[in-house]
């Protein structure tokens, strides 16, 4: 199974560490890079402002994604250097950085790709804990150029590769593309002689082209556009209660430490049964996932109408498919839960998702660029949004290779103060992962929420639920007790 966790769950054995980072000439090229009229993507804008405010408050916020996998043998440093540089050269999200000037975000772009070189540095033997600290502390900050580093830890007969990249430049699917680029290119280089000339890669479209298309499309929308009207209708329907975690999260200001918890919701047999239950209800797997989230919230709070955000990839097939960048965006969904019926909720969730999925390409921020909340007759959210992402790993061609190489994606153990949730379908099970503030109140709420969510999945496939497990402090016992006994879905 593909690992998804926080950095403490990344456990490469100790060994000599080599890191690739930008050479001085590349940093000088970034410092003197030209100003560009192209703004960041809407996704990047949110992240940049968070970084700006976090820096002003001297507060660390989540930003790094660490992607890691294992490769056999002794790392060929020259071949890996070629593979890493080829990856950075072909994806132009790495070629820009951003600064704030009089309240505006300015893009600076390095035009001469050839000057962007990363060189290896041998850092000696490191323990596992030292490597984790190194990865988190040596990758430059969001508002600096070069907020991406790569490295290998050599072991007896294999090595661990990692990429530590600021979220500014990647989303969840980009983690897989980093693997695709570097792992396969390194293997090809090692199998093709000693000259270490990277093979000519397939054409990769520019992330900056995506940003330009996004800005042009979104900029053409007005208050009379159907997508804007749909966002306004959703905002009015929520009446200020925008999608957020339904339980208390305690003190989220004293510190910004975060944690993640992964639990198996369905085993292989129950996953198939759940899929069948979704189709019997006239929905797909994602409709069932959203239905269970809606029913769980109803069980916890008594709400009769669920409002949620689910993630959706906005890459255009055949154009951005292989492009590294932040493409994931949010889709609003609404599900009535008065009947408490899984079938009815799944149908309603699927209908809502299908009707709204194209709104992923229309950031809600555009609505507020067109008019004030009072003019729109809406209330702004008072809590941090909660995102639910669903991914079917079986539909990713390299998923089998991921399992063979111990592939994993890890967060930096920080929290913005809210909750995000990932429900993933693997070949052998369905899991849920939640990120949350690392405090006792939030942890207890997350355990309670997962128990209720598990109950809803169990009801959908008629498996018995075992109550009270969230009171157990041993996570391994929680995992065991929560596990049931028994197309066309979206990914983000």
Describe the protein's architecture and organization.
With 492 residues, the chain is an alpha+beta fold. The chain has two domains: 3-212, 2-Layer Sandwich (Chloramphenicol Acetyltransferase); 221-482, Nonribosomal peptide synthetase, condensation domain (Chloramphenicol Acetyltransferase, 2-Layer Sandwich). It has 15 helices and 16 strands. Strands 1-14-4-9-8-2-7 form a seven-stranded mixed beta sheet, with helices on both faces. Strand 5 and strand 6 form a beta hairpin. Mean pLDDT is 91; it is low at 465-492.
Kindly state the number of beta strands: 16
Q: Could you name the CATH class of the largest domain?
A: Alpha Beta
Strand order of the largest sheet: 1-14-4-9-8-2-7
The termini sit apart by 18 Å
Q: How much helical structure, as a percent, in the residues? A: 25-40%
The averaged pLDDT comes out at: 91
Gross geometry: globular
| Portion in strands | 15-25%
Number of alpha- plus pi-helical segments: 15
Reported by name, the CATH topology of the largest domain is Chloramphenicol Acetyltransferase
| Helix-strand category | alpha+beta
GO biological process, one term: lipid biosynthetic process
GO molecular function: catalytic activity
InterPro entries: CAT-like_dom_sf, Condensation_dom
Organism: Mycobacterium rhizamassiliense
Topology:
Blueprint: E1 3-6, E2 15-22, H1 24-31, E3 34-36, H2 42-56, E4 64-72, H3 77-90, E5 96-101, E6 104-109, E7 118-126, H4 128-138, E8 148-154, E9 158-166, H5 172-191, H6 207-219, H7 226-238, E10 258-267, H8 268-280, H9 285-301, E11 305-312, E12 329-336, H10 342-356, H11 365-370, H12 373-376, E13 387-392, H13 399-404, E14 408-411, E15 420-425, E16 429-437, H14 440-460, H15 475-482
Parallel strand pairs: 1-14, 11-13, 13-15
Antiparallel strand pairs: 2-7, 2-8, 3-6, 4-9, 4-14, 5-6, 8-9, 10-16, 11-12, 15-16
Helix pairs in contact: 3-5, 9-10, 9-14
């Amino acid at each position: 199974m593909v690992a998804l966790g926080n950095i403490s769950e990344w456990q490469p054995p100790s060994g000599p560490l080599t890191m690739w980072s930008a050479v001085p000439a590349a940093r000088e090229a970034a410092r003197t890079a030209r100003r560009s009229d192209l703004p960041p993507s809407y996704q990047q804008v949110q992240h940049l402002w968070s970084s700006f405010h976090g820096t002003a408050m001297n507060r660390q916020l989540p930003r790094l994604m660490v992607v890691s996998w294992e490769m056999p043998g002794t790392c060929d440093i020259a071949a890996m250097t070629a593979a890493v540089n080829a990856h950075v050269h072909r994806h132009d999200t790495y070629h820009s950085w951003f600064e704030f000037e009089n309240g505006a975000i300015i893009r600076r772009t390095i035009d001469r790709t050839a000057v962007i070189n990363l060189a290896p540095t041998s850092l000696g033997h490191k323990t596992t804990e030292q490597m984790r600290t190194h990865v988190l502390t040596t990758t430059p900050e969001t508002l600096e150029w070069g907020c991406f580093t790569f490295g290998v830890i050599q072991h007896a007969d294999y090595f661990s590769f990692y990429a530590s990249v600021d979220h500014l430049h990647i989303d969840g699917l980009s983690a897989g593309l980093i693997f695709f680029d570097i792992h396969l290119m390194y293997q090809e280089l090692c199998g093709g002689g000693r000259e270490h000339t990277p093979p000519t890669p397939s054409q990769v479209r520019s992330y900056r082209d995506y940003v330009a298309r996004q800005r042009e499309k979104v900029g053409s929308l007005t208050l009379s556009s159907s997508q804007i009207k749909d966002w306004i209708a959703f905002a009015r329907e929520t009446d200020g209660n925008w999608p957020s975690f339904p339980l208390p999260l305690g003190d989220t200001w004293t510190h910004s430490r975060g944690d993640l918890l992964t639990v198996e919701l369905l085993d292989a047999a129950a996953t198939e049964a759940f899929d069948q239950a979704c189709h019997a209800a006239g929905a797909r797997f994602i409709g069932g996932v959203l239905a269970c989230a809606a029913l769980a919230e109803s069980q916890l709070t008594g709400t009769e109408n669920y409002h949620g955000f689910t993630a959706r990839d906005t890459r255009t097939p055949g154009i951005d498919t292989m492009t590294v960048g932040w493409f994931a965006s949010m889709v609003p969904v609404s599900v009535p839960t008065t009947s408490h019926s899984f079938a009815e909720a799944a149908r309603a969730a699927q209908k809502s998702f299908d009707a709204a999925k194209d709104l992923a390409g229309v950031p809600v921020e555009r609505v507020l660029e067109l008019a004030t909340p009072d003019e729109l007759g809406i209330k702004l959210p008072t809590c941090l949004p909660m995102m639910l992402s669903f991914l079917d790993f079986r539909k990713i061609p390299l998923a089998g290779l991921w399992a063979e190489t111990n592939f994993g994606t890890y967060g930096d153990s920080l929290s913005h103060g809210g909750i995000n949730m990932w429900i993933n379908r693997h070949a052998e099970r369905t899991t849920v992962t939640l990120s949350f503030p690392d405090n006792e109140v939030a942890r207890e709420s997350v355990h309670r929420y997962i128990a209720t969510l598990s109950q809803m999945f169990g009801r959908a496939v008629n498996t018995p639920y075992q109550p009270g497990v969230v009171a157990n402090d041993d996570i391994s016992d929680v995992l065991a007790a929560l596990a049931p006994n028994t197309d066309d879905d979206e990914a983000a």
